[in-house]
Design goal:
The complex is a heterodimer of chains A (562) and B (228).
Chain A: H1 2-29, E1 38-44, E2 47-50, E3 53-57, E4 62-67, E5 80-85, H2 91-99, E6 106-111, H3 117-120, H4 128-143, E7 146-147, E8 151-155, H5 158-173, E9 183-188, E10 200-208, E11 222-228, H6 242-264, E12 273-279, H7 287-294, H8 298-303, E13 304-310, E14 319-324, H9 331-347, E15 350-355, H10 369-374, E16 379-383, H11 407-426, H12 446-456, H13 471-483, E17 486-493, E18 498-500, E19 505-513, H14 516-541, H15 544-551, H16 556-561
Parallel strand pairs in A: 3-7, 4-5, 5-6, 6-8, 11-12, 11-13, 13-16, 14-15
Antiparallel strand pairs in A: 1-8, 1-19, 2-3, 2-18, 4-9, 9-19, 10-12, 10-17, 14-16
Helix pairs in contact in A: 6-11, 6-12, 6-13, 9-11, 11-12, 14-15
Chain B: H1 2-23, H2 32-56, H3 67-90, H4 98-125, H5 134-160, H6 169-181, H7 183-193, H8 198-224
The chains are: A alpha/beta (562), B mainly alpha (228).
Family (chain A): Belongs to the nicastrin family.
GO cellular component, one term (chain A): endoplasmic reticulum membrane
InterPro entries (chain A): EF_Hand_1_Ca_BS (IPR018247), Nicalin (IPR016574)
């Protein structure tokens, strides 16, 4: 027994020896540990092709020295990364650089905290509006340019601030960082970006059936409420689009909840079907909405009385706009507008009507209702913005963060739409009846709105990067399932006009490097130290003569042969 | 650039050992075998110390100075002395004078110590992009350690190999040997208890190693003198 114990212990020793040897091999194989001065999360500028032309930043990997805006004029920046905080941004400078295609190693923009969800909070920054506009302008510049070097966005924090201050100091002395003078090196080790294969757009629809009277064989009329939920911005990993169109999605969900409460009881179920649609592909001329509508049965499409599209209703004070494509004299439009105006008057909101004719030959679709109008369905878009946005503008970019959205605005918008719809459904137009009165059981729930808005403000929703079974899409589906009778998902492939590339976020390592000259000096010092040590030891142990004799060739050999 | 830095730190850490071997008469008398045997004995001692530390020591969460733990570490440190005794006395050496024996043993001892404690961090860390002064300081520490090991070996050989020593010097010899043997505990106390930074600790080590080397040299030459 003692023998087996002994051998067991011996085997244990052997095993630990093997593990020690294995560990040594692993250590030896380690090339570089992440021992950086700072490591921060960075988000890449979007890279996409539109109709064959390349846009955005075409590279992802970065391995260059850092430079700040205070670089000495005439310095060569083709192997340097410019770090530009948003507060010090000079947009003409960046525009010049990009338009004149000046060579640059890379760009890193530092965004203030207010644009991030975690740290944004309720900080009061006085130049909020200024920064927002500046960022919007920068975004539009970057999205429409073809940039042959990596461009990244990061949030300001203490680490990078100290690094930047150090870089500025070095630049001011006139010593920009290169291989021989030390400084900071920015390294992002990502593989080359690849195309996103067959990007999918997913439309989610929820159907709430109305009350069919016994013996009534006709199809009930339908009212559709639609909002697009995806975004497009300069940094896809940061495009949360709180206002465009997070506010619309939240409003739609709340309206669905309220009407599901009403429709759950057959006594209060209206004589209208309600169709809730969460569409994708919004920034791309509302491609998803078009495909969704095309997939409808002809009868269903004809039964739609009208559709209300919700877009950007999160940051208005007391004025909203209803955009239509049918002329305002049209009977249906008049009815809808009057319904909304009556409720708006009671709520102290001003509602204006904006008419814009659609041009079928022009592929540009500025607002969602135009897709309905192209298929001859009466529709209107409710929005706080009075002008029509350009392509890829106002689609929930970097500047559209939680800080700039006001839940009260959304709450009031929900009340306006729900009240107007309900009065139309139950035939109470013109009467002063408050169906969704505050404080009642059908009141609009601000907590619900806030929690969904918070979730949306933390979820980037650029359609090509949302897979079919993305957890967020599933969450939307589940929410609609709770509030409606029947939910369907439609998966389509995004039209071939757009091609997207992956690699949207990475980890940046900032290393403080010493220059080559430093190591050369060190080598010289060490060399002389070793020589001095050698001489000292020879002298003390063998004597000075021995040291001298080392340098003289022994003459004895010649004498001997002679 | 980074391999360059690794190369620089490597020659700072291991260069002096090679220089010592070639500069002194050790190379003439071909005492490499002794050094290698001493290095192996050091490895064995390190293993025994590791096992003892693992068995008796508790891992504390904070990096403070726990006197009881430090005392235990110091006691385990005396295993070092036992190892050195074994290397000096028990190993069979070729016919080399005592003068060279302790130098060879000390050299082998210090070289094994440098390789075991400093090679791995150097390989992993000095090749990275990030620059720190740590590896240069570590090299200086290796130099101090070389001097200390040779002094300890000298004192050890005085204690165990030389039978006729002047009586007055014996306590001094034992005292110096004690100080040199407890150097690791003293440096860890300075680092943890007093919170000295690494450069300061290395400076202290270099200074004391030179002082102890000088003292042990004097003691050794004092014992060489023919004794009446």
């Amino acid at each position: 027994m003692a023998l087996s114990k002994n051998s067991g212990g011996h085997r244990g020793m052997q095993e630990s020896m093997y593990s020690v040897i294995a560990l040594v091999f692993i250590l030896v194989a380690c090339v570089e540990l992440c021992d950086a001065a700072a490591a921060i999360d960075v988000y890449r500028l979007i890279q996409y092709d539109m109709s064959g032309s390349a846009y955005g930043s075409r590279f992802a990997a970065l391995n260059h020295h850092a430079a700040s805006l205070h670089f000495p004029p005439g310095a060569d920046l083709s192997r340097a990364v410019l770090i530009i905080p948003l507060r010090e941004l000079n947009i003409t400078f960046v525009r010049e650089y990009i338009n004149q295609k000046k060579p640059l190693g890379g760009l890193l923009f530092l965004l203030p905290d207010i644009f991030s969800f975690e740290n944004g909070g309720n900080k009061q920054v006085h130049e909020k509006e200024q920064l927002k506009n500046l960022l919007a302008e920068l975004e539009q510049l970057l999205i429409h340019a073809n940039i042959p070097y990596p461009v990244y966005f990061a949030f300001e924090n203490d680490e990078i601030d100290t690094v930047l201050a150090d870089i500025k100091k070095n630049d001011a002395i006139g010593q920009p960082a290169t291989a021989t003078t030390g400084g900071y090196k920015l390294v992002i080790p990502t593989p080359e970006p690849k195309k996103v294969a067959s990007p999918t757009i997913t439309n989610i629809q929820g159907w709430l059936s109305g009350l069919k009277a016994d013996g009534d064989t006709n199809q009930l009329p339908t009212i559709a409420i639609v909002a697009s939920y995806d975004t497009f911005g300069a940094a896809p990993a940061l495009s949360v689009g709180s206002d465009s169109n997070g506010s619309g999605v939240v409003a739609l969900l709340e309206i669905a909840r309220l009407f599901s409460l009403l429709y759950s009881n057959p006594k209060t179920r209206g004589r209208y079907n309600l169709l809730f649609g969460l569409t994708s592909g919004g920034p791309y001329n509302y491609n998803g909405t078009q495909k969704w509508l095309r997939s409808f049965d002809q009868r269903l499409r004809e039964s739609i009385d009208y559709a209300i599209c919700l877009n950007s209703i999160g940051s208005w004070d007391n004025e909203l706009w209803i955009h239509v494509s049918k002329p305002p004299e049209n009977g249906y439009i008049k009815q809808i507008f009057e319904g909304f105006s009556n409720v708006a008057e009671e709520m102290d909101i001003k509602v204006g009507l904006k008419h814009k004719k659609i041009n079928i030959s022009n592929p540009r679709v500025a607002r969602e209702h135009e897709q309905f109008s192209r298929l001859r369905v009466t529709a209107a878009t409710l929005s706080e913005i009075s002008t029509a946005p350009e392509l890829l503008q106002g689609t929930g970019g970097l500047y559209d963060s939680r800080q700039f959205v006001n839940e009260t605005a959304i709450t009031r918008g929900v009340k306006l739409v729900a009240e107007s719809l309900a009065r139309h459904i139950y035939g109470h137009q013109g009467k002063n009846v408050q169906i969704f009165a505050d404080g009642g059981s059908l009141a609009v729930n601000p907590a619900y709105i806030q929690s969904w808005l918070d979730l949306l403000s933390q979820t980037p929703r650029v359609a090509p990067f949302l897979s079919k079974n993305d957890p967020f899409v599933m969450a939307l589906k589940k929410e609609l399932t709770d509030h409606t009778d029947e939910v369907n998902m439609q998966h389509e492939v995004l039209e071939g006009v757009f091609t997207f590339y992956d690699s949207t976020s990475a980890r940046l390592n900032i290393y403080q490097v010493a220059s080559v000259t430093f190591d050369l000096l060190l080598l010289l010092v060490l060399g002389s130290y070793l020589i001095v040590l050698f001489s000292f030891l020879v002298i003390t142990t063998r004597g000075l003569d021995d040291l001298i004799s080392l340098f003289r060739r022994p003459p004895s050999r010649k004498v001997k042969t002679a | 650039m980074t391999m360059f830095h690794f190369f620089n730190c490597a020659i700072l850490t291991f260069g002096p050992h090679a220089v010592y071997y070639s500069a002194t008469p050790l190379s003439e008398y071909d005492t490499l075998g002794t050094s290698v045997k001493a290095a192996l004995v050091y490895l064995g001692t390190a293993l025994v110390k590791l096992v003892c530390l693992a068995t008796f020591l508790q891992v504390s969460e904070n990096d403070g100075f726990d006197p009881y733990q430090e005392l235990l570490k110091a006691l385990i440190g005396f295993i070092d002395v036992a190892g050195l005794y074994f290397a000096l006395t028990q190993l069979t050496h070729r016919n080399i004078s005592q003068n060279h024996k302790f130098q060879a043993v000390g050299l082998g001892w210090a070289f094994a110590d440098s390789v075991l404690h400093r090679l791995a961090p150097l390989w992993v860390g000095a090749r990275g992009l990030e620059f720190t002064w740590d590896y240069i300081l570590q090299g200086l520490e290796a130099n101090a350690n070389l001097v200390l090991s040779i002094s300890l070996a000298a004192l050890g050989s005085l204690i165990w190999l030389r039978k006729n020593k002047p009586k007055t010097l014996i306590p001094i010899i034992y005292a110096c040997a004690g100080i040199v043997a407890t150097m690791p505990s003293i440096t860890s106390y300075l680092r943890r208890g007093l919170g000295w930074h690494f450069p300061k600790v290395v400076g202290f080590e270099l200074f004391t190693s030179l002082v102890m080397a000088f003292i042990s040299w004097q003691l050794f030459s004092a014992c060489q003198r023919p004794y009446v």
